[in-house]
Amino acid sequence: MKKIIATTFLILAAMFLIQPLTVKANTRYCLRYEKESKKYKKEVGKYKRNVKRYKNVVKHGRSYKSIMKQYKKVMKQYKRVMRQYWRLEESRERMLLEIRVIKIPVYKFIDKRIRLCGGGTSAL
């Protein structure tokens, strides 16, 4: 009987402690990347405007070529951040799905075990 209760506790601990923490961490990372991607979007917008403005003109000693170089650099950074963000978002979605899938059978399993013990929820 002690073994049965111990196993139910282990299952509960695995469900309620480990998985939600990883989801929370993933959510935090997603927010961080979302913030970073917004920053890069802003920078990309700025460089797009600059490129339009300087299209065939040289102003303040900066050529069209140098601005295009900066613009490409920022676009590269932006794309990298967005890739990381989407990867994290996918893993977070997968994690949430796993939790939804895992919870149902585990609860059924615990209910059976409790009924076998001959007690209600107080058996825990």
Automatic annotation (TrEMBL):
Q: What span is annotated as the signal peptide, if there is one?
A: 1-25
Q: Which top-level group of life is the source organism from?
A: Bacteria
Keywords for this entry?
Answer: Coiled coil, Signal
Coiled coil (UniProt feature): 30-57
- Would you tell me the protein name for this molecule? Uncharacterized protein
Q: Which species is the source of this protein?
A: Anaerosacchariphilus polymeriproducens
